[in-house]
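User: Second chain of the day. Same drill as before.
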Amino acid sequence: MKLQSLLAASFASALIVSASASAQDRSDWPEKFTVGTASQGGTYFAYGSGWAHFISENLGVSGGAEITGGPMQNMALVHTGDLKFGLTTLGPAQESIDGNSPLAPGMKMDNVCAIFPMYQTPFSVTALAGSGIKSISDIPDGAKIGFGPAGSTSDTYFPKMMDALGVKYERRNGSWSDLGGQLQDGLIDVVAFAAGIPIPAVSQLEVQTDVNIIGMTDEEQAKILKNFPVSKFDIPASTYQSLDQPSHVVSMWNFAIANCDVPEDFVYEITKLTMENNDKMVGIHKAAKSSIPENYSKNTVLPWHPGAARWFNEHGYKIDDSQIK
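Assistant: Same format as last time:
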């Protein structure tokens, strides 16, 4: 009995010490956090809101998603500390870091750190099947094209891509859900999507009407690759019921970001939870198949948050000190 009592006392003491250490570790953690996403109907909102819930549920910190204008605005909100976390695309991230954001010209948003790779954003075009538009060259002069929310990755780059391909258009902005509805109602002719796949708004459109999901010819793809910070990408035929073969397009990488002043231990635990549970992330959104540690090297733009860098370095994914904020 004495031995049992001694063991019980030791175990209880260990629990107290462990609990105290845990409380101490969390002493500088925020009471709550918000993730900047984008408009409803797009992948950012679905991915970001699901990820925020996943983190909140597992780490016991209240968290949620905020609808924003997308990558460019998320860079600004995370830089200023208005949001702790956000999602961004490397093209808009580079422009923001360089002080070329249209939201705050001249402001170098250098207090934003990468925490983990998300997925690639393909640039693709959708039109109603009844429109007769089956290729980019079929888009008639003066066509009304929806480019997503103002300041989004699509709105930042797709108009320039269309210009490079000689398309003459009238520009429209709005949430992906709204633009999908406008396309279906005949108020616009084309939606130029840039979002992780499958895009909820496109999947919804397919249920309600026949659509053409339009890729790029080899010549069009080569021209875009030469002039923009993108890479080749194939949208698998299995992504949408409207595709019977892969759609050749271009893409840009997305990363989750944090304000660089968010406590290191908090970001470490978030990175650990996310990178070690890809099956749970894929359950949130299929695009998370690419949210794996091996893709950390795709970040050629943002400094790494110390907490995230610690997890990657511990697991053999080398991040040099010069790349850490």
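Strands lie at 32-36, 62-66, 85-89, 112-128, 143-146, 169-172, 190-194, 211-214, 231-235, 247-259.

User: Great, on to the next one.
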